[in-house]
Amino acid sequence: MIYSDQTRILIAVDCIIFGFDGENLKLLLIHRALEPEKNKWSLMGGFVQPDESLELAANTILNKLTGLEGVYLEQLQAFGELKRDPIERTISIAYFSLIDIHKYETQISHEHHAEWFPIKEIPHLIFDHNEMVEMAKKKLRYKAALHPILFELLPEKFTIPQLQSLYEGIYDSEFDKRNFSRKILSTGLLIKQNEKDKLNSKKGAFYYVLDKGKYSENFHAFLNLIPNPDHLQFV
Q1: According to the model, what pLDDT value does residue 235 have?
Q2: Hey, which CATH number is domain 158-231, 1.10.287.70, 3.30.450.370, 3.40.50.2300, 1.10.10.10?
């Protein structure tokens, strides 16, 4: 064999699933089912089989460990530090996604204790999984700035506090309520409704809908909401 003198290395995939429930940005985690680090919190991961592509392996593993299917997964990058897995040299290809939790909540299987954690309350994870999550968050911020993915997570009618919560979760920042409201309304891309959400405050917050016609032409008006947009980059 041409490659007979080469050392074999294991290839794995890990899935980083962010979700928004209408109020908070969250991360989906499971209990690891095998040693080392058995029963500790982990991303959804497993080994790529000889007859699988990376994409097929990621989708198969995600479905097996959480029950989720039909989730669009985007490849993040490879993680290959020499001792990232203490048992054997393993290179992991990380995938990530951002979903509407409510659309997938009936699919979730609890066989592996799948649980959503608020993004600011993520526990310590096995191996280099916390590093993977941080890298995915950076990529998510980049995509959210340049593509209309955030509004796809909101219901058809939403409140400004809901939108602010989503932005704060994505960019790990706190926004002044009045300033955020002023900036978001100055884009001219939201249409105020007569109804109010009175469940989350006594005064109630007006609902808004996105003006989809104007939005497609002037999406970048939302860039003024992003902290330090000049420093927003992903390599």
Answers
A1: 42
A2: 1.10.10.10
